[in-house]
Design brief:
Blueprint: H1 3-13, H2 15-18, H3 23-34, H4 53-58, H5 75-81, H6 94-105, E1 118-119, E2 125-128, E3 133-136, E4 139-140, E5 148-153, E6 158-163, E7 166-171, E8 177-186, E9 191-201, E10 217-221, E11 230-234, E12 247-254, E13 260-265, E14 269-273, H7 274-281, E15 290-300, E16 305-307, E17 313-318, H8 320-323, E18 335-336, E19 348-354, E20 358-366, E21 371-380, E22 383-389, E23 402-409, E24 414-421
Parallel strand pairs: 2-9, 10-17
Antiparallel strand pairs: 1-4, 3-7, 5-8, 6-7, 8-9, 11-14, 12-13, 12-15, 15-16, 15-17, 18-19, 19-22, 20-21, 20-23, 23-24
Helix pairs in contact: 3-6
The structure holds heme C.
Amino acid sequence: MNRSILSILFLLGHTPAFSQVDYKVQIEPIFYDKCSACHTSGGSSGGLDLTSYSTLMAGGNSGASIIAGDNQNSLLWKRINDGSMPPSSNDVITSNVELVKKWINEGALEKPSIQKNEITQIDNFSIPEDSMKTLILEANDLLGNAVTFEVKSSNQNINISLVSDTLTIKPKSDWNGFATITAYASGSTWRDSSIFIATVVPVNDAPKPFFWNTVKSDTINITKDNLTSTYGLEWTESVDVDGDSILYILFASTGPSSKVEVYRTSNTTHLIPYSDFLQKTFEQLSVATSATVYFTLSAYDGTDSVKISRGDRELYINRYEYLSVDSQGIPDKFALHDNYPNPFNPSTQIRFDLPKMTSATLTIYNMLGQKVKTFYMQNTPAGYQSITWNATSDLDVPVAAGVYLYQLQTEEFVKTKKMILLK
Ligand code: HEC
């Protein structure tokens, strides 16, 4: 049998011999219980303060109370052994008198000098939801042998990964609560554990992304007869993992001005009567025959809000027919008129005549011949039409000053004119 196996057997067989008295755990409580009522700071009773290790070792009026390694000459031990302390019948029980003796004879240390085979205790901790924590596990093996770790969680919502001594604790996404986690350390002859609680503190989760079900650009023609018609906006539901109810907030603007809140709903659709556009959209544009309204939407859970994905919806509203008086009638031929004003800044109106219902495209080019902005007009009714260009590109970016061409195109008609944007 080699030496190290022998010493393991020795350790195993004589564990009690190794259990050194621990001052903090075993001795101090005796003094707190039986002595500190009198032997407190200030040391009035014989000048001895028994409330801490350092004051105990400082001794009292008679000098040192403890002689390390020598219980027979330690005044404190003598006085509890002969029963004179405490000075009442409330004596220290024999087993504790023996414990104090053993402690003195082991050297009267504040901390045990002999280490144990053990895992270093892990404190409880809290982390916010959707975050993780990494810990390095430590253990002491008296023989200096390798220690292996193992970790278990009481709760499956906490994922645990252990690579050698590195423990990563990662709660499942959006989960909060707590788990009791036990870390084990095993040496060749021993196993020890540390139990700790990991608390995952709830954090509000923003509503999930959501999308338009409405086409990106659309056109409506308001006439005297269709004021009760509605234009519908529609979107997909935004889910909230915390189970909060979602409020959708609709924002709108006319042209490039900043959007204002126009409606709140918990539904995923909103119908806007044409008459509303006449009142609200054209409120500041009393003579305009057309306007473009941009919509965006936010989903709000009471704490966080998320903007709808994939950009604004754009609605081109033509109310030429609504404004037209009957005598104006229907033009007898296609025409593209000079824009007004010209030169212009920041916007200009482009008028054109359609003698019959048709699909038309009005395209604006820069002087390099590049397309800057396109207005698609599906099934536009016959009449005197107009659109307003606010000098922005298809991407809604303001364009540079300069000369631009505008071209109207239908199946039967193409015409191009020039205009000047000043800055
Ligand atoms: C009811 C009060 C009281 C309690 C409880 C008490 N003592 Fe005392 N102790 C005294 C007084 C008073 C003296 C000083 C007179 C004397 O030496 O008898 C004293 C003196 C001592 C002395 C001598 C100090 C010196 O340097 O002269 C020691 C040692 C001592 N006590 C230890 C203890 C211990 C240990 C306990 C608890 C197990 C204890 N006492 C509990 C009142 C108390």
